[in-house]
Write a structure and sequence with these properties.
InterPro entries: Znf_C2H2_sf, Znf_C2H2_type. By secondary structure, the protein is an alpha+beta fold. It is built from 15 helices and 31 strands. It has 3 domains: 49 residues, Double Stranded RNA Binding Domain (2-Layer Sandwich), CATH 3.30.160; 264 residues, no CATH class; 101 residues, Double Stranded RNA Binding Domain (2-Layer Sandwich). Helices cover 43% and strands 14% of the residues. The longest helix is centred in the last third of the chain and has 45 residues.
């Protein structure tokens, strides 16, 4: 259907607003296009038509350009577009264009509702749907609506088909989305291309950097349309609406009945019941239910500790461990033990401490039945049965069952001797060697004192005997 532009005035910035310009509108969703060919391509979103096929794997696409991009991303790895500033390469020209904004800082598209700025206009258009609530794209299986067209095939794979066409060539983990594979590869490469220009912290994903920046800016762009409360991320807003306002619990576990506000939380939860662990460590082969657990585990092997305390400089492999550590610096300890009066900065510390008084050991070894008061003690204990030694020395390859054993072993290679004797100055790599050494000084002092005591006694006795002898001689 053809329309004269002069009949309408509310088109987006992408539409040429010269009077008399012919536009083509979609009779299904009403979206307008300046070219008929663009409308035909767009309609395939609704019809599901994919007439173009990859000659390597047979996958189908709605546009010819998508095949070229697919081949580069999945099969050839070709990245013909190179950034002239930093040398980074891309498989698509528009990815390079977007990347250049990282160097220039240019964000020319602004949201007139919240003021947020964007690199590209179509990203702004997507963002606006957060405020309008518009969800023009629908799943033809269950009818669920989405704000972005790309969310529909992702939804189908996650919920309906279970298809994971993107496979990591290093460890074999599969993904429903190509960008999921791209992000996953950084686990193996260690690449962190996104840098915070305020504190210098680096990230594997751009959205991680975006979220992190809000720590510095305090920005909370997502607002609840019911009560006005603001959030720094969309997911807490969704959860807030379900829990506080609607009470809606959309996704229910058919095994235990537990409810979740987001489907991916349900998918992760179900693995508790099914035992599925799709994420595998390419170093030791250990499997995990969630990809974040795999990421954290791999740091055991690499020794990476990306989370640093800004107060004392101590580093941690997991973000939550840093959060826990920071309580050491805080003088606030609001949780008190009613038995002994000891105070703690966290409630879980108090709960763990109380087991000292109660003798409660809720963590049981399913192999030998031994019980423990803390779950990490059970984890360490189980390695006695399994023989697992997940901590590896990258110099000699020797493995250890406990994390604290590895830094001690590394001193064999580095020659580090951090423990010093305050008596003679001799240094040691392990504290028990220092303790044993100190006994040589203690034994010497005790022996010397004993010897001094014996000699003085002898001298004193001899003196007494001589005095007595002189007196006796005088009287005689």
């Amino acid at each position: 259907m053809e329309k004269e532009f002069c009949e309408r005035t509310d088109f987006s910035d992408d539409v040429n607003n010269e009077k008399g310009k012919i536009l083509y509108d979609c009779d299904i969703c009403g979206k307008f296009f300046s070219r008929k060919a663009s409308l035909l391509i767009h309609k395939r979103i609704h019809t599901g038509e994919k007439p173009y096929h990859c000659d390597i794997c047979g996958k189908s696409f709605s546009q010819t350009g998508s095949i070229i991009i697919h081949k580069r991303n999945v099969h050839t790895g070709e990245k013909p577009y190179c950034c002239e500033i930093c040398g980074k390469s891309f498989s698509q020209g528009n990815d390079l264009t977007k990347h250049r904004c990282v160097h220039t800082g240019e964000m020319p598209y602004h949201c007139d509702t919240c003021g947020r700025s964007f690199f590209r206009n179509h990203v702004l258009a997507r963002h606006r749907r957060i405020h309008t609530g518009e969800k023009p794209y629908h799943c033809d299986i269950c009818g669920k609506s989405f704000a972005q067209t790309s969310s529909v095939p992702i939804h189908k794979r996650n919920v309906h088909t279970g298809e994971r066409p993107y496979r990591c060539e290093i460890c074999g983990t599969s993904f429903s989305r190509n960008n999921g594979l791209t992000r996953h590869r950084r686990i193996h490469t260690g690449e962190k291309p996104y840098h915070c220009d305020i504190c210098g912290k680096t990230f594997t994903q751009n959205n991680g950097l975006t979220r992190h920046r809000r720590i510095h800016t305090g920005e909370k762009p997502y607002q609840c349309d019911i009560c006005g409360k603001s959030f720094s991320e969309t997911s807490p807003l969704s959860i807030h609406k379900c829990v506080v306002h609607t009470g809606e619990e959309l996704y229910n576990c058919e095994f235990c009945g537990k409810s979740f506000s987001q489907n991916n939380d349900l998918v992760n939860h179900k693995r508790i019941h099914t035992g599925v662990k799709p994420y595998h460590c390419y170093i030791c082969g250990k499997s995990f239910c969630e990809d974040i657990n795999l990421t954290n585990h791999i740091r055991i092997h690499t020794g990476e500790k990306p989370y640093q305390c800004d107060i004392c400089g101590k580093s941690f492999s997991h973000g939550p461990n840093l959060a826990v550590h920071k309580h050491v610096h805080s003088s606030v300890k609001p949780y008190h033990c009613e038995i002994c009066g000891k105070s703690f900065s966290r409630n879980d510390y108090l709960s763990s401490h109380k087991r000292v008084h109660t003798g409660d050991k809720p963590y049981h070894c399913d192999i030998c039945g031994k019980s423990f008061s803390q779950d990490n003690h059970l984890t360490k204990h189980k390695r006695i049965h399994t023989g697992e030694k997940p901590y590896h020395c990258e110099i000699c390859g020797k493995s250890f069952s406990q994390n604290e054993q590895l830094p001690k072993h590394m001193r064999v290679h580095t020659g580090e001797k951090p423990y010093h004797c305050e008596i003679c100055g001799k240094s040691f790599s392990r504290i028990y060697n220092l303790t044993r050494h100190k006994r040589t000084h203690t034994d010497y002092q005790m022996t010397s004192a004993s010897q001094d005591f014996d000699i003085s006694n002898v001298i004193r006795m001899e003196s007494l005997l001589k005095t007595e002898q002189r007196c006796y001689t005088k009287h005689v």
